[in-house]
Amino acid sequence: MTAPSAIKTSAPDRSDFAQLTVQTWLEALPSPAVVLDGDMVLVAANGRAEDMLQSYPASVVGAIVNGPFRSIADRVRRIAGIETQAWFEHPLGGTWYYVTAYPVQARADGPVLQVVIATDITRQKHAEFEIRESEARLEEATRIAQLGTYKVYWDTEAVQWSPHMYVLHGLSPDSFVHTPDSYREIVHPEDRDLHERYRRNQLEGKALHGAEYRIIRKDGTMRWLRLDGRVLFDADGEPYASFGTCQDVTEGKQREQELKHLLRRNTILYEALDASPIGVAVLTTDGPRPEVFYVNAEFERLTGHKASSLAKRSIGALRAEDQSGVAGGEWDKVNLALQTSRAGAFELTCVRRDGTTFLGQLEVAPVRDHPGREATVFVLNLRDITIDRQRAEQLLQSQKMEALGQLSGGVAHEINNLLQPVLALSDLGQDIADTDPVKVRKYFEVIASSGRKARDVVRQVLTFARRDAPQLAAYPITALVEDALRLLQSGLPPEIKLMQQIEAGEAEALVNPTQVSQVVLNLVKNAADAMDGKGTVSVRLRSIDLDAAPAGALALAPGRWIELQVADAGCGMDAYTLSRVFEPFFTTKLAGKGTGLGLSVVYSIVVGWGGMLKLESEVDQGTTAMVYIPAAHSDAS
Amino acid sequence: MAHILLVEDSPEVSLSVREILASAGHTTEEAASGKEALKALKGSKFDAIVSDIWMPEMDGIALLKEIRGAGNDIPVVVISGGAPNAPLTYTAPLAATFGANLVVYKPFEKAELLKAIETVLAD
Predict the structure, then answer these.
(1) Fewer CB near the last or first residue (10 Å), C or N of chain B?
(2) Domain B3-122, what fold?
(3) Burial A463-493 (b: 16+ CB within 10 A, else e)
(4) Of A409, A423, A427, Cβ closest to residue B89
(5) Quick one: fold of A145-253?
């Protein structure tokens, strides 16, 4: 905009004066002003109109308006005679003008002239544009954010909704009438009181932050909505309305619910794990080697380590240093299992935080994301089996003593039979010492041989009672089984018949002789008891070759085995009993009749040999025990 | 002096019993099982039987059942290797049940057996 210019007129006369008067008046106006006639001829213009006309006003007075102002002049002409307003943008200057045209008539029959006074409204226009633009941006933003906006007037409780508010509620702006009740019907019945509180709070001028409630749309779907609102104040600072946004938070709510569910699940799992009587550790392979990710309470108790002190460490933290090579070897096996993603159970010497050690049984189970892939997570179960081990050894020993007691009848019978000639012949020999030396010599031979036999029996008993860990070696199995049968026979009820089918010949078995007696004794005793002391117990011993299939069914390697079968025609066992007979102290016998250790001991002995014990039984038909004994290699051909 | 059937599977025990009986002037025939004993009973006449219990083929209990079952009331002395108080020894009471006149427990001395023979022969 240029500064007002000097008065542009011709020489002063009366009409000049009149001209001058108008001109002076025009120049006195603070805004651009022009006078047009009905033919769009510029009759007059002030200096301020220069920019609007894009010409020096004096130079275009008397000419038809042209240039940018032409269009507005044209509009003014078309509505001539009526006071009119318009605004336009000057195409060159970027200037906005608000134009008011006042029709004036100098004489009653004279032409109508238009006095056009323009106001530069560029600044207002720009402000208006900015507001529009920001409104548009807000609209876009709320559309993108799927935000609805609302306004509630306090005095009338009248409600204004943005279009998206209707979308959020699944409503049509044309059909929904806002009343407190009509909205209440949309709100989920359980949340109606809640929503009513929000509404009242707003009307009382309280701000809303994160008010959440459910609605049921017309189509029956449930949605979660969230309101955030504030109070609007008028020019006098008086609150008059609440304004706020509304968004659909259903998905977030669902995620929140899922998360809550997941958290609860986790809490339950963690609590359950902490209640477990077994130490549990979880390892992950986030680093170069599996490291502790989690341990439960029992694991902490067993090791004396807090979970935090084990976190990110290798399980080797429990490895007992300065142990015999055997312990170290087992730990190496654990590492190998972890490296190769294999499951396994290991007996290890473990060290607690305080440096004390315990015998631990550690089971490693790889957790695979996909079959065949290397595991990235491992679950470890840890038990302290120090006491179990001691107890098992005590059990074995006590069972041995029990078996020894059972053998004592047989042993006594043997010894008594051997003492008989010793006692009788030494007595008789004294009577005839001088008269019949030949007979006396014969007596001495019998006495000596009886003595030697008695010594063997005693040795056998002592071997049996010995506490030493059994050493396995190749023994002629036929002799061992026959010896055992002979010893136990006299301890059996007289109406129990032993039917023996000993067909193993010279076969040698990798066993411990004492344990063979224990196995035979226990099985035959059980068989006799199953028949109530009356009937036939069949004992069969033979060498057999197991093919892959039957061997696999017994979890044995195919090849040569020695099979000991002990069969009775007794009461048999049902499936439940059969499934438990290997448990220590599980007994079907009356109190005082047995400890119930028999089959569990037989099982542990046979498994200790690397063999297998299998039972077949049918109620009232009888039971057959089959013991598979490893054959010594020399006999394998 | 009596003629006695001695039923015993152990040759050493058999020898010692035979010698005890001979020392008192008794004569014996020997059998190593119940079956042999039944055969011997058919062939000869005896004043008494001295029998072991545990023997192969037919044991002393079965032998007693056969003899008493056939109505034969010949005196029988059972010689048992089972200790009288061993819990798993059923033999002695059974022997008495099945009709033994007396039970003598091994190892016995000369006098014990001879006294028993004397007793059953006197009844």
Answers:
(1) C
(2) Rossmann fold (3.40.50)
(3) ebeeeeebeeebbbbbebbbbbbebbbbbbb
(4) A409
(5) Beta-Lactamase (3.30.450)
Cβ B94–A431 below 8 Å, yes or no?
no
Fold of A278-384: Beta-Lactamase (3.30.450)
Cα A300–chain centre separation: 21
| CB-based contact B57:B35 (threshold 8 Å) | yes
Specify the CATH architecture of the domain A470-635. Answer: 2-Layer Sandwich (3.30)
- The whole-angstrom distance between A476's CA and the closest CA on chain B is 24
Sketch the domain layout of chain A as residue ranges.
14-125, 145-253, 278-384, 470-635
- Paired with A222 in beta bridges are A216
Indicate left, alpha or beta for A329 from its phi (over 0: left) and psi (-120 to 50: alpha).
alpha
SS3 B121: helix
Backbone angles phi and psi of B95, in degrees to 5: -60, -45
ipTM: 0.86
Using one digit for the tens of pLDDT, what is the confidence trace for A328-349? 577 888 888 888 888 888 888 8
C-alpha to C-alpha distance for A254 and A219, rounded to whole angstroms: 19
CA gap A496, B90 in Å, rounded: 11
Q: Could you tell me the end-to-end alpha-carbon distance of chain B, in angstroms, rounded to an integer? A: 15
Please state whether A81 falls in left (phi above 0), alpha (psi between -120 and 50) or beta: left
Tens-place pLDDT, residues A40-55: 888 889 988 888 888 8
